Amino acid sequence: xxxxxxxxxxxxxxxxxxxxxxxxxxxxxxxxxxxxxxxxxxxxxxxxxxxxxxxxxxxxxxxxxxxxxxxxxxxxxxxxxxxxxxxxxxxxxxxxxxxxxxxxxxxxxxxxxxxxxxxxxxxxxxxxxxxxxxxxxxxxxxxxxxxxxxxxxxxxxxxxxxxxxxxxxxxxxxxxxxxxxxxxxxxxxxxxxxxxxxxxxxxxxxxxxxxxxxxxxxxxxxxxxxxxxxxxxxxxxxxxxxxxxxxxxxxxxxxxxxxxxxxxxxxxxxxxxxxxxxxxxxxxxxxxxxxxxxxxxxxxxxxxxxxxxxxxxxxxxxxxxxxxxxxxxxxxxxxxxxxxxxxxxxxxxxxxxxxxxxxxxxxxxxxxxxxxxxxxxxxxxxxxxxxxxxxxxxxxxxxxxxxxxxxx
Amino acid sequence: xxxxxxxxxxxxxxxxxxxxxxxxxxxxxxxxxxxxxxxxxxxxxxxxxxxxxxxxxxxxxxxxxxxxxxxxxxxxxxxxxxxxxxxxxxxxxxxxxxxxxxxxxxxxxxxxxxxxxxxxxxxxxxxxxxxxxxxxxxxxxxxxxxxxxxxxxxxxxxxxxxxxxxxxxxxxxxxxxxxxxxxxxxxxxxxxxxxxxxxxxxxxxxxxxxxxxxxxxxxxxxxxxxxxxxxxxxxxxxxxxxxxxxxxxxxxxxxxxxxxxxxxxxxxxxxxxxxxxxxxxxxxxxxxxxxxxxxxxxxxxxxxxxxxxxxxxxxxxxxxxxxxxxxxxxxxxxxxxxxxxxxxxxxxxxxxxxxxxxxxxxxxxxxxxxxxxxxxxxxxxxxxxxxxxxxxxxxxxxxxxxxxxxxx
Lengths: 408, 408
Hints:
By secondary structure, chain A is an alpha+beta fold.
């Protein structure tokens, strides 16, 4: 797997993109994006588990399951088109119709996605004008991939893109992606907007399987604030233009492809966690030595979601009691007397707790380790062979600032 | 039920209390308290559900279940005696022994409780000196009840006390209580330290039942930050000194007593939620029209715990989308298209959402309602006959301040 591939959503053959300011948010920030494939794609997707589903989630669900192929995705930021009733559903169809029309493809081949404020109707005159404008300057280069990645941002501070190349029987196959997400991020399904493209030839069943399985250990293991959005969507499009022999069974080629998709999801997840609203660091929690995989996951998520732990990490305070406490109320079973805890970052690794009681560690060294941009807590239950990792961030004043008046 | 009774933990006949600065935190703040009954008490208790249980929780569990009677409780704040291994357990016994010695009662009749930093050993020389000092000035008046209520505070900004009197066959019976709790408060069992005293004559089984049932809808329905502490404890002591005929079955007298205990727990719960770390308001969430009681509880808790909703309340922002979203990921089933949402406070009541879409409400009026010290969100699912109420608070800069460097 070659990991330093550029071009994000446009890295795979035959994918074009664009992003621009249509005027949804204001007259400056980019707020609409398009991803288009020169050839029709097989599509896989996963959506939010929230009972309250935004209109585009319900709309795309139908299309992904019923359309023979997908060829484009139109995205807007600023307004989520969630809690918008029948009007919101009609607007999804209008977006697909408008894009199908200007691209010369069936409207059933156009997915839509929205992110932003809940409860407001889309400004459809602005949106349709944007849809007419977007294809004029589409291109398959790095610059245009970045325009698209920037246009889907809301409170994100950085655009998020990644791509890799793998070798399938001597044929180079590329997988690339972009995503957005910063608030309302929680381990339950996909938790943000994510678009992945590949030129791999693979059947629909295995395409969906590679996505669903990898999401379980990547996007479902991140948490910024414990809130699961109404709009969470991950879409994976495969146009087959790499020219590899189609993957139709779970052979070594499928495994390579799965690993590529897994890597893309993992990297994008870490980018989201590390860009959590107002955060100053990526906080990684590794649980080791758990009795079951499920217990390991529960504990990792519980620690990464604990407000008290997150505030302590922000304060560079080695408050391991809060970590042990969060493991304790996770619902997982473990021996509370045999836990070892370490903190690690580029500044080094330090054992803070041995057999559930404090070691004679240096507070100064602990603070130094906790002051870096990527902080890892390693908790060994010494209770079994299972591990899990969760990603989150610290809880800061800026998180409160951002969310106390998001709509203003 | 007479609700404006003064005296808190000392309101019931025969209970004495005291609180003082022993020097655990510093040389100014009170940090040790005692509650003593002139006659031996029947005892009931509930404890944290956290797998990681502090030493005093394990110690008291044994005593409450195995001792014939309890006559005193000694409490310290500043150090939680949690994650302290065998040493921590030994210190609990030392505290009971010291108190039993100075009070002239068996050490098996003395419960202990601790709250504060996790992972540090108790400073036993200071603690035992405090235990010798506490009984010297014990008294059964309002002033001494307040000294005790103040001595158990950590990040609390106000002491929390309440008492009521009921009439059992013409005999006045009193129930009073005090509690502390502000951070690490979450709906799961008792979530803080709470001590309740009564002069009611009642058998042990019904005493425990009245406590366990009332806690399920009071302390288990509050949330400050989603973290369930290692030390959560509610203790209820009954010395029978009111002279009523002992309550031994679930008759009308039991019902009266249950309602009194319920009221005490509800009021103390609301005081804790309204004094959440750094908060500016008590945030109450009422779910109505749910299909089951369990669904109503899940939704109420989910909304009251949502960081995004809590930050919006802090910003006086009527962001109902976040409320509907939090109901949606609660795990409860409901029709996402038929929800009505209202905001209410002393400034009035306003319908914000009808049938899951925004009404044409005044943002100005909404902001006025949300600016008060007690804000209520009322969410009607129009889906059934069940209701539940949860209590929490807003998420503020001050919460982050307090928890970023609690140990320093």
